[in-house]
Backbone:
């Protein structure tokens, strides 16, 4: 091509030599103008029907289109010349077709309006193969391939719709050459990626099965790419193909049946093998299925055999290419084993572990890296494999000193994962020793991981405190705030034993030297402030001494540290008389500090003694209460930030260790008894109140005429209907009252059905509904139904219904439901009268609002106050299961679907909280003529231990708060 | 303030570098070379680039880049003014067309100038006239070495722009009134914006320390003089002066008095917005044909100034759509050509007589495009120069020169009106 087009070469070299952007773009503009002129010169007289210029020679046309392509590639907009491109595509000569298709796939986008004309010419090339398979089959093949490539490149929606059938046909057709099949498979993969639901997997799977029986390895490789693409989207639909895949794998691995051209350094088609293994990884449970039929059993047996073979046959070889290919397959196989997890055969896992152990000590860093990474995954599996890993501990420790930092990272990960109670002390010590030499780039990560490990596996918390102190002294800059905060938490939360005294003494010693890291000063300051009194009796550790040691760092520390120091001084001064004269001048000086925090603290502490009684001061400066144990510690969150949720290390970190559980149990046991007692009392009080409330409501609903025993069912029905669009409101032997209601902003449409369930006529059926101020109602019903006179009303024949339609508009917030009185007479002449309530409650008129967490919290805070807030605690029903994620999900759906609140994602700090927001729409107008709306916020907090929920509502209107709270309570109770 | 000044050649090699503060390293030149010059960014992007907390402000003279580097939040106008002054000074010392060779040959001189014009990143005295008193290398030759004490009092004195004891054989003053007219007209012919900004340039060659008094036909002054036989003056909206003008006096009675610097300087700038005479009327007619593939443009240009005058370098730039394939142009006068770089038809007329009418007609064939996009119709741009014509009507009434020796002075006045942004929407 280069020799063909001198002009093109000149043009390109002109652009390359351009000194500035302006020069380049002006050259491009000139060239574009020239091409336009050339293309247009026959526009009026001698042009084809599609607008291309016939007077151009083939050479010129190609040259100009190449130039357009080059200009496009440089980033300039080219939006003409498509007709010339089409002419080239339609041409019979290969060289022209090639240019045409290249230009087509680059210049056109899927959304362009002239796709129609393109589609036809592409289609004719696509189907050419089926029509005539003669002497020029090679040419047809290339044409088909070019067409497929450009379809894949353009892949507009319209194009996909128009041509995917042909592409599929090409793929499946027996007449297509292997080359075309390969291209079709890849093209189809591209199309499926853009529009995933192109065809049903179930129908397509047999076609793929047929393709998988092809003998051509190239076709197989492409088909596997397609299959992987498809199966990732819908794994279940392609499960039937597993035996075929296993078969191919068996052919390649065991029989080594492979054409010469697909042998890569004596390895049979490694790419295909990897794709096959990747596909199998989508089905982690195939080995676990017990009820498999014989054929699939055979295939699983073969599969294990294959994997076994891969594991045993791979070795480090001299040829770098050979070993790369082999190892790629091997690692994929190990991934498969990891994927199977505990359901896979144990000997495979052991073999894999052994092999990896060998690899982590080889010279080649790439293999070492992969081996370490895979080993971390393998070690993550629960059963037994951890034992295997431990054998390699020393090797891994050596890798920690590797020259390559990425290998060091992996080694660190692996160490982190393989750490357990037995070897924790050793690993942590080793890591701490290594930290001294470690590169700055990896230090922060190391510190974080050491801190987590030390906390997880500390049998003696004193060791934990020592370790962190060591970390601070070695690499204080990398000890982030969460780490030392955690130390403080742990020390505070474990009053048993002498941990607190030990920590205080150790930290005092650590802070003694003139120069020590700022973080150490902070921890020391805090811990001494809290627990300094435990060691004050010891020699050289009196309160005064403590103050002196801390205060020597005053001048070298920053604002945050000083703030902590000030609090500590206040506590010291409170405990030890002799410290007061020492502390007073510090406070006096700090009252004028630039930093507001320091200024405020010192001023308040200084004034405290005069302002309050000694008891109050004592109370204020008492040690802090134990911290709340969070689900995920800040450290783990940090790890998650860094490595992503599914990394092996994070999974590991999130799982509490035996030691942690023990510790938690110990700590909790002590605290719980006291707490639970208090809570029980609290709930009993609350519960009593609750019962009283219900009694109240009960009396409302239970009049004469309704038998006592159906009241609970009735109440339940009423509550259900508050949150459901339709249901039964009341039912007994005579009548069934059903109800359907839907709401649109401030307006609602309620249909009530009165069904006669007796076999006789019901006479004088009459309904009366009390009018209320806050609702405007329009009623319309079966004739006579709304009469209020005695003896009037309509008759409802056996097994038929009377109907009442109510249109309602809310005018103001309210917290009760409108009353409805149903009266009728049986044929025996017995009069019935049921006072009922219609389930029209405030939440019916809610419109969900989506709020970001920031906005939610802001509004939540702005709505504080007695009037606007309603809070109540409700116990989960006795029959309900444990409060877990699933249960919370149910509560969430109550809030969103039942109460019509929008769930505010992201503002819930824990999974035990659900927040929602909505607008209460009314039909009344304010003075500007706008509808009055009331913003409502709700928050449900669960206490899984106490099996209780706390419902808090905050709205602008007190009645609204109450109403929402009531509905929420009742719905939760029924959940 | 400015931390470093660099002079680079077109490849980005450092020719001159002077560090005023040590908060940037010389490696900065490399990042400028890589990210601005090598990226072919010059000319298309803003001349201020921020790389790693360093601001690079640059300008170009021929193919050399003058770059100021700073870490501080400087006033960019000040930095650019300094760079422009620097180039003016170098022009005075090395000749108008100085190039990399002359820079290389006058290294010491340039470093001396660098030291003299800036101190610790703050610009100092940049007046060539004063600089040449004590830096005399290159083209500038000093006849007699001034006394050191004289020099000090000169630089620190009240009139630092002129030194005593200047002698000229012939005492002459040249005054150039350069007006540039800005116009934006809508497609209906309504005037959206119209103003004249002008500057009065002077070149004085006067002996001693003369006191000058300068007068324009400013409306306020004319009304004060209240002589009935005069034409009404021009209303000048706002004006700024060279620092040699005594502002107190101007504020008191609007007379412009000053002791001028020797040589060229800009005496004042002013702006006029009322009663402006447009030198050209442009009447365009643009039609886009129904089938979207043709555009026809007809345009008439009429000159309104006196028949004795003529405009030079008239360039009318008529925009055409981007996908123009072929153009057929007919003009009654001058030469017109389609220039794809500007995507416009450029019509050039060397000499445009007064009270004349010229026509141009163009038929344009468009190329059909893949994606239909409407033509944005940018405005027509006109460029011209009309000598001896002021569109604001300003003229110089007098310039009086008083000196102790009482010599005679020759005065030469010249007027030119140029197009600033002269645009007509279509």
Residues:
């Amino acid at each position: 091509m280069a020799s063909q087009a001198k002009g093109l070469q000149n043009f390109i070299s002109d652009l390359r030599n351009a000194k500035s952007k302006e020069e380049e773009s002006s050259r491009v503009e000139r060239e574009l103008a020239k091409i336009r002129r050339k293309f247009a010169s026959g526009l009026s007289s001698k042009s084809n029907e599609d607008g291309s210029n016939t007077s151009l020679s083939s050479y010129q046309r190609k040259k100009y289109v190449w130039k357009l392509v080059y200009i496009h590639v440089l980033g300039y907009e080219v939006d003409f010349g498509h007709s010339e491109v089409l002419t080239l595509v339609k041409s019979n000569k290969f060289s022209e077709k090639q240019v045409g298709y290249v230009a087509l796939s680059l210049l056109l986008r899927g959304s362009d309006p002239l796709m129609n004309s393109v589609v036809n010419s592409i289609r004719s090339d696509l189907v050419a193969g089926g029509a005539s398979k003669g002497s020029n089959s090679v040419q047809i093949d290339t044409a088909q391939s070019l067409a497929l490539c450009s379809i894949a490149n353009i892949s507009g929606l319209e194009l996909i719709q128009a041509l995917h059938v042909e592409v599929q046909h090409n793929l499946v057709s027996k007449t297509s050459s292997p080359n075309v099949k390969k291209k079709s498979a890849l093209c189809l993969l591209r199309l499926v990626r853009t529009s995933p639901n192109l065809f049903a997997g179930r129908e397509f799977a047999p076609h793929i099965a047929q393709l998988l029986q092809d003998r051509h390895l190239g076709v197989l490789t492409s088909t596997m790419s397609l299959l992987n693409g498809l199966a990732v989207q819908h794994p279940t639909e392609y499960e039937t193909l597993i035996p075929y895949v296993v078969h191919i794998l068996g052919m390649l691995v065991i029989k080594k049946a492979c054409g010469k051209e697909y042998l890569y350094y004596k390895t049979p088609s490694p790419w295909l093998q990897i794709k096959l293994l990747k596909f199998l990884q989508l089905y982690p449970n195939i080995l676990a299925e017990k009820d498999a039929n014989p054929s699939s059993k055979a295939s699983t047996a073969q599969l294990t055999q294959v994997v076994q073979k891969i594991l045993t046959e791979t070795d480090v070889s001299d040829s770098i290419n050979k070993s790369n290919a082999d190892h790629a397959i091997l690692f994929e196989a190990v991934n498969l084993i990891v994927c199977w997890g505990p359901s896979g055969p144990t000997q495979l896992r052991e073999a894999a572990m052994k092999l990896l152990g060998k690899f982590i000590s080889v010279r080649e860093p790439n293999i070492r890296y992969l081996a370490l990474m895979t080993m971390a995954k393998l070690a993550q599996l629960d059963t037994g494999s951890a034992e295997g890993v431990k054998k390699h501990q020393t090797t891994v420790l050596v890798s920690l000193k590797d020259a390559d930092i990425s290998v060091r990272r992996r080694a660190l990960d692996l160490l982190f994962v393989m750490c357990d109670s037995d070897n924790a002390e050793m690993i942590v010590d080793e890591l701490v020793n290594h930290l001294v030499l470690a590169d700055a780039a990896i230090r922060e990560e190391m510190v974080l991981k050491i801190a987590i490990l030390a906390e997880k596996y500390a049998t003696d918390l004193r060791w934990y405190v020592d370790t962190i102190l060591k970390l601070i002294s070695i690499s204080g800059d990398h000890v982030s705030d969460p780490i030392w905060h955690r130390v403080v938490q742990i020390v505070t939360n474990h009053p048993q034993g002498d941990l607190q005294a030990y920590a205080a003494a150790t930290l005092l010693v650590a802070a003694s030297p003139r120069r020590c890291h700022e973080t150490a000063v902070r921890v020391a300051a805090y811990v001494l402030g809290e627990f300094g009194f435990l060691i004050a009796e010891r020699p050289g550790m009196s309160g005064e001494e403590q103050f002196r040691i801390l205060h020597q760092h005053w001048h070298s520390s920053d604002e945050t540290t000083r703030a902590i120091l000030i609090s500590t001084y206040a506590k010291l001064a409170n405990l030890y008389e002799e410290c007061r004269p020492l502390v007073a001048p510090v406070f006096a000086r700090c009252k004028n500090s630039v930093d507001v925090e320091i200024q405020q603290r010192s001023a308040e502490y200084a004034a405290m003694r005069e302002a309050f009684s000694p008891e109050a001061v004592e109370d204020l400066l008492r040690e802090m209460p134990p911290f709340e144990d969070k689900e995920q510690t800040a450290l783990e969150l940090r790890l998650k930030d860094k490595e992503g949720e599914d990394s092996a290390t994070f999974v590991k970190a999130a799982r509490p260790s035996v030691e942690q559980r023990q510790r938690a149990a110990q700590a909790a046991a002590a605290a719980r008894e006291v707490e639970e007692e208090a809570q029980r009392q609290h709930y009993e009080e609350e519960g009593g109140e609750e019962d009283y409330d219900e009694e109240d409501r009960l009396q409302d609903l239970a009049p004469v005429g309704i038998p006592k025993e159906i009241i609970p069912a009735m109440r339940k029905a009423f509550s259900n209907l508050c949150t459901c669009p339709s249901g039964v409101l009341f039912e007994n032997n005579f009548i069934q009252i059903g109800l359907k209601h839907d709401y649109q902003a401030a307006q609602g449409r309620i249909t009530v059905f009165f069904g006669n369930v007796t076999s006789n006529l019901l006479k004088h059926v009459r309904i009366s509904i009390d009018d209320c101020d806050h609702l405007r109602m329009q009623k319309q019903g079966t004739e006579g139904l709304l009469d209020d006179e005695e003896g009037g009303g309509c008759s409802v024949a056996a097994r038929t219904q009377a109907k009442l339609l109510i249109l309602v508009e809310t005018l103001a917030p309210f917290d009760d439901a409108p009353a409805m009185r149903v009266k009728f007479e049986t044929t025996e002449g017995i009069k019935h009268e049921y006072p009922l309530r219609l389930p029209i409650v405030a939440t019916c008129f809610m419109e969900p609002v989506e709020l970001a967490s920031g906005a939610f919290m802001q509004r939540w805070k702005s709505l504080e106050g007695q009037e606007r807030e309603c809070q109540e605690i409700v116990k989960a029903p006795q029959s309900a299961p444990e409060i877990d994620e699933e249960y919370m999900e149910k509560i969430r759906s109550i809030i969103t679907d039942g109460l019509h609140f929008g769930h505010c994602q992201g503002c819930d700090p824990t999974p035990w909280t659900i927040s929602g927001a909505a607008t209460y729409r009314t039909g009344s107008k304010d003075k500007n003529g706008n509808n009055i709306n009331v913003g409502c916020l709700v928050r449900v907090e669960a206490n899984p231990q106490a099996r209780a929920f706390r419902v808090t509502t905050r709205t602008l209107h007190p009645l609204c708060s109450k109403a929402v709270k009531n509905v929420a309570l009742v719905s939760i109770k029924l959940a | 303030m400015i931390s470093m000044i660099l002079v680079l050649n077109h490849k980005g090699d450092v020719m001159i570098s002077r560090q005023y503060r040590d908060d940037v390293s010389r490696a900065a030149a490399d990042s400028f070379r890589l990210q601005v010059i090598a990226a072919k960014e010059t000319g298309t992007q803003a001349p201020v680039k921020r790389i790693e907390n360093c601001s690079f402000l640059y300008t170009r003279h021929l193919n050399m880049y003058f770059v100021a580097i700073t870490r501080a939040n400087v006033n960019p106008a000040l930095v650019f003014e300094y760079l422009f002054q620097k180039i003016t000074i170098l022009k005075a010392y090395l000749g108008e067309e100085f190039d990399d060779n002359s820079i290389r040959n006058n290294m010491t001189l340039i470093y001396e100038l660098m030291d003299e014009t800036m101190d610790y990143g703050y610009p100092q005295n940049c007046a060539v006239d004063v600089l040449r008193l004590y830096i005399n290398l290159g083209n500038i030759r000093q006849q007699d070495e001034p006394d050191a004490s004289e020099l000090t009092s000169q630089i620190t004195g009240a009139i630092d722009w002129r030194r005593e004891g200047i002698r000229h054989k012939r005492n002459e003053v040249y005054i150039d009134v350069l007006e540039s007219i800005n116009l934006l007209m809508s497609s209906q012919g309504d005037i959206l914006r119209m103003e004249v900004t002008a500057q009065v340039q002077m070149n004085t060659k006067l002996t001693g320390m003369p006191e000058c008094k300068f007068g324009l036909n400013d409306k306020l002054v004319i009304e004060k003089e209240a002589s009935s036989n005069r034409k009404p003056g021009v209303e000048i909206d706002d004006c700024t002066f060279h620092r040699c003008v005594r502002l107190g006096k101007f504020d008191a009675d609007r007379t412009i008095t000053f002791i001028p610097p020797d040589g060229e300087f800009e005496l004042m700038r002013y702006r006029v917005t009322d009663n402006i005479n447009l030198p050209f009327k442009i009447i365009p007619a643009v039609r886009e044909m129904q089938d979207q593939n043709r555009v026809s443009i007809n345009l008439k240009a009429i000159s309104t100034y006196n028949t004795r005058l003529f405009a030079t370098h008239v360039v009318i730039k008529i925009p055409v759509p981007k996908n123009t394939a072929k153009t057929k142009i007919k003009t009654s006068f001058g030469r017109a050509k389609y220039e794809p770089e500007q995507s416009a038809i450029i019509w050039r007329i060397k000499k445009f007589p007064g009270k004349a009418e010229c026509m141009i007609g163009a038929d344009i064939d468009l190329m059909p495009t893949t994606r239909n996009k409407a033509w944005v119709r940018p405005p027509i741009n006109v460029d011209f120069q009309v000598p001896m014509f002021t569109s604001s009507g300003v003229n110089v009434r007098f310039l009086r020169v008083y000196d102790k020796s009482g010599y005679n002075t020759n005065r030469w006045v010249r007027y030119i009106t140029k197009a600033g942004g002269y645009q007509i929407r279509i």
